[in-house]
Amino acid sequence: MNRKTPEWELYERVVARMLVDQLETDLCVTPNARIVGRVTGVRRQVDVLIEARHDTDNSRRLIVDAKRRARKIDVKDVESFRGLMEDVGATHGYLVSPAGYTKAAEKRAQAAVSIRILPLDHLKDFDPSTWPRCQRKGCKHGRVFWDGYPELTMVLQPLHASEPVHYPAVHYVGKCDRCGRFHVQCLVCNDILAPSEADNDCGHQCSCRPPWFWLASIEEDDDGYDSAELHACLMTGQVITVDRRSL
Question: Which of 14, 119, 159, 164 places its Cα 20 to 30 Å from the Cα of 136?
Fold first, then answer.
């Protein structure tokens, strides 16, 4: 039996989807992120996490709280959200609601928090159940949220030509919206791979056998905080970080 997606979860996903469509490609988006608080030391849930894609840099971290409810955002909502921002080390935050916000909430938000209105009519025809299912065993309801489209190039040497041919291959990269597992889809062979950041994962290569493979790992930033990263490992030795999620 298919799980019916709750309305609040649909609202969070549509906010995340709209952000992917609007942000620069050097930023990655993670829905339903889990980050260990720097102050509390407990794992905090973040509706939408936005951070640097290509390196372990948390200095530009942004978070979004999508509040799908009938009442307006008030001062208590802003103060609670600012506490979450401080705990997870976010430099800016967005509070999104279909019902608007009070004048007091707007004043309390100041420069660190932006409040936005997203009407519920944006949910019309939005159906995350059409997204690919998570490939991780044991993840029952997860769907793959694509947030990046890296293009890698294969260099082919034809038998009867002097100049090599550059053959670009485009991929989708993203994470499960429930467990966070990285996924890659090759648009040449349509394989979907799910690299794990576990130490015993030796990498994944799709059916068309390009001169690269995909590997996930846990990396530590300069301040000692961990993030999971997805890498494209080229046979030339070059390693390109194509997606991230902080832990």
Answer: 14
